[in-house]
Amino acid sequence: MSLPDLFVLLVLVLLLTIALALTVVGSGLMLGTRASDKAQSSAAPLALLNRQWRIERGIYRHHRLAGLLTIAAAAFFFFKTWHFGLLEPARLSDTWRLTILLLAVGNLFNLVIGLVLLLRPSRLKPVENLSNRWIEVDVQEMLRERPRLRGTLIVLISLVCAAGFGAFLLILLRF
User: pTM for the complete prediction?
Assistant: First the structure.
């Protein structure tokens, strides 16, 4: 499989993910409770999206394992991309150079976070306090009150599916 084929496959997977996410959000209106059923609004299917998921206790309890896994994931990235020429980027196009550079910077950040998790997880407390602010958004109510937004979501889902289908046809036709 060549590099352009991998790129098109990545785009197809990305389009499928976006289409599924938009479909889940859009279909929440159909599966949700009626406007008169305000008493049972906590049982709505989209209530799982509006719930806080606390994972800190598990990460802090097993901080060495979490740190090692984070370091291993970043090291695996560098191991797998070393042959792309991180040190001699002239072989790659500008787009791939920028992509690999951004991923390398992100994985360097992952290495630092993994080391902090491995050695001193308490140093992440200020970051955790900043990131644990909760903003509640009622997606069902927002979409129910705004029919134009709902229509825009439907059009966006259709465009994403059409783009994915078009890219798939181009691959099949080898155009």
Answer: 0.52
